Amino acid sequence: MTPRILVIGSAGQLGTAFRRLGSPAITCVGRPEVDVLRADTIIAAVAGAAPDVVINASAFTAVDAAEADEAGALDVNSRGAAVLAAAAREVGAPIIHVSTDYVFDGNKGSPYFEDDATGPLTAYGRSKLAGEATVALANPHHVIVRTSWLFGTSDRTFVAAVLRLARERERIEMVADQLGSPTFAGDLAAALVAMAADVAGRDDYDWGIRHVAGAHASRFEFAEAVLTAAATHGIRRPELVPTSLAAYRAAAPRPLDTRLDSRFPGTRTRSFRDAVPALVAELLSR
Ligand SMILES: NC(=O)c1ccc[n+]([C@@H]2O[C@H](COP(=O)([O-])OP(=O)(O)OC[C@H]3O[C@@H](n4cnc5c(N)ncnc54)[C@H](OP(=O)(O)O)[C@@H]3O)[C@@H](O)[C@H]2O)c1
């Protein structure tokens, strides 16, 4: 049986994926009504939904903007997340809190496991790492789910951006030496619902950190899969030119290699190669 699940962050990429599951057992709420910076709205939402499990899909995710507003990122990703975790504890619900591969520095040279040393390079990564600790302190019944390179149905994400570039340009440069684990938001949402069913009502669960992510890839390979899928819909294939992360200028440095592996079974979501074709078909049909 699906437990009653309350998801915070309904308008985001992951929040949208939860809404698209269309389950009556899942209540999705978000700003402006429910804001993790306003404890009263959180307490009211948790009391109203009386959930078996709370999932935090909300976050300050603007990696570059966080460099100039680390306090703002910390407010949402650490302080607000802890308020939510504590509100869940008050009603006896575990919290599933989503975190990121950016808690790592990317210099390990092989995929990261849950117990590897963290070392964020960015304000965003530091705020998310702080959130892992504050959530764990606020609610002993917690699962911190780190994921990587989330992609979904929004027009603002990597897959949509590559499709746009394919229509506009003859030649696209794509970083070939940055590695991660592209994770389809719909698959992550489904995996978290399954996890919620596992943890609901349990005291004896192995609480802690889980890496839940898809197959490993470079940005270049990820883009190639998008272009291959687009070509089956008649989109002309531009020349894809490899470039290096060092050539990519942004306010926040990006970690080079944050591929995620897990010490736990059943935490790998579908490969981007399997998830991209249907997503490309959907995005092109809009
Ligand atoms: N995107 C990635 O590549 C990636 C990779 C690894 C991990 N993650 C993690 O995955 C999770 C989901 O990310 P996402 O891509 O779905 O992010 P997203 O699309 O940026 O959505 C974040 C959501 O959080 C909401 N939010 C921000 N501040 C809030 C507040 N004070 N109170 C309530 N809601 C607030 C936003 O609300 P508004 O709509 O009102 O702005 C937005 O709906 C995050 O924990 C993120 O750190 C993401």
State the gist of this model.
This protein has 286 residues and is an alpha/beta fold. Helices cover 40% and strands 16% of the residues. It contains nine helices and twelve strands.
Distance between the termini: 34 Å
The proportion of residues forming helix, as a percent range, comes to 40-55%
What is the beta-strand fraction?
A: 15-25%
Helix and strand succession? EHEHEHHEHEEHEEEHEEHEH
The H-level CATH homologous superfamily of the domain at 5-154 and 183-215 and 260-269, spelled out, is NAD(P)-binding Rossmann-like Domain
Written description of the protein model:
There is one protein chain. The protein has 286 residues and is α/β, with parallel strands linked by helices. It has a domain at 5-154 and 183-215 and 260-269: Rossmann fold (3-Layer(aba) Sandwich). The protein is 40% helix and 16% strand. The chain has helices spanning 13-21, 39-49, 63-68, 70-90, 123-138, 158-168, 185-199, 219-231, 272-284, and strands at 5-8, 26-29, 53-56, 95-100, 142-147, 150-151, 171-175, 179-180, 183-184, 208-211, 217-218, 239-243. A 6-stranded parallel sheet has the order 2-1-3-4-5-10, sandwiched between helices. α1 links the parallel β1 and β2. It is globular, with a radius of gyration of 19 Å. The two termini are 34 Å apart. The model has no long low-confidence stretch (mean pLDDT 97). The structure holds NADP nicotinamide-adenine-dinucleotide phosphate (NAP). NADP nicotinamide-adenine-dinucleotide phosphate is lined by residues 8-9, 11-15, 30-31, 35-37, 57-61, 76, 80, 98, 100-101, 128, 147-150.
